[in-house]
């Protein structure tokens, strides 16, 4: 195991990664482990502190330290069902490739621009045309004025904003069920996630108040629309309620993820500006392609300045070639947003309606996912796999919320909806045993 703090921490992390130390397993008390290794207890304390900051372990006072239920070394993404031959995969969460624009001309246009104005060190990190078009779209949706930054996707933006304001041990209010990658990221940064229940209109105001009050959360992360995995979208009335709650907690960091921009037909009702420090991020991944790692971000000047400052010390900037490719896509209207939204809505609403006819309550107000509460999650996943459908287990997306499965409709045809609804109804268990959150 070694005698230095770094060696002790590395040994524990290896044990978690290999499965020798299981999630929830209690670690030896610091003094006991120090005596066993023949080191100062402060050395073990430093090792445990490092492991907490990395999201590997958690400490609960006198109850000791134990491996996290979802340690950063075993991400929720590993809780997926691989579809064997002959099984339809509706659990990956990808957009429909047929609804994504071809990128060849956009990348060629960016290359031509680069030949005229080469991208070099020392230039502004945000392409001026990108900033202007992104800001115009934000203005149109009522997002308060603020500088524009660019990150490599939504999760990159969220990580940088959290790191700019919070310190290990701080609490962060997150949607439950919520985006699995985010539920991994928060503890990996050494932060403490506080679950917030939601319904089809987004986070419940009373739950947000509890998280910010008794829960002590210093940040709140919400999804504007197309919430993953439930499809929730914050409506006008819910936005007004949440703004009233946030008005009493001006010091809270507010992060909004509007990844549905460009492929969702539900209008946004942003909360931006309800607190002193806020940010709203829009990734192009779902509308233009997951491998186009670009997201536009705005926020209060302090937050954006901190993000850009830290970015300069790391990658420096997001490729201006990619930014210019996105500019070309925006300018040419490469994606017909309403048509794409309608295509996803036909499949999503059709599946929800088909399930309702079979007595199965499902959720999917916007986006490309449908959330189905079930009585027995493991059994439902197994029965659906046997019936020829690989869905995403709800364990990837929930903390305190009830069991469920996520179905991504992007790969479905209308003719698939009835057979899939039959399989889900047969696998999901009695209606009275199901709950949303």
Structure, described:
This protein has helices at residues 5-18, 30-37, 41-53, 104-116, 128-140, 154-165, 180-188, 205-212, 236-247, 285-288, 301-312, 320-332, 337-357, 377-386, 417-427; strands at residues 57-59, 65-67, 88-89, 148-151, 171-175, 192-196, 198-199, 202-203, 217-223, 253-257, 277-283, 295-299, 369-373, 389-390, 392-393, 404-408. With 437 residues, it is of the alpha/beta class. Strands 4-12-11-10-9-5-6 form a seven-stranded mixed beta sheet, sandwiched between helices. A three-stranded antiparallel beta sheet has the order 13-16-15, with helices on one face. A two-stranded antiparallel ribbon has the order 1-2. The protein starts with a helix and ends in a 10-residue tail after the last helix. The model is unreliable at 431-435 (pLDDT under 50).
> How does the major sheet shape up?
7 strands, mixed
- Envelope shape: globular
Structural class: alpha/beta
The Cα radius of gyration reads 23 Å
* Span of the ends, CA to CA: 42 Å
Instruction: Give the strand tally.
Output: 16
Mean pLDDT: 91
Q: Roughly what percent helix? A: 25-40%
Q: How are the strands of the largest sheet arranged?
A: 4-12-11-10-9-5-6
The amount of beta strand, in percent, is 5-15%
> Helical region count?
15
Low-confidence stretches: 431-435
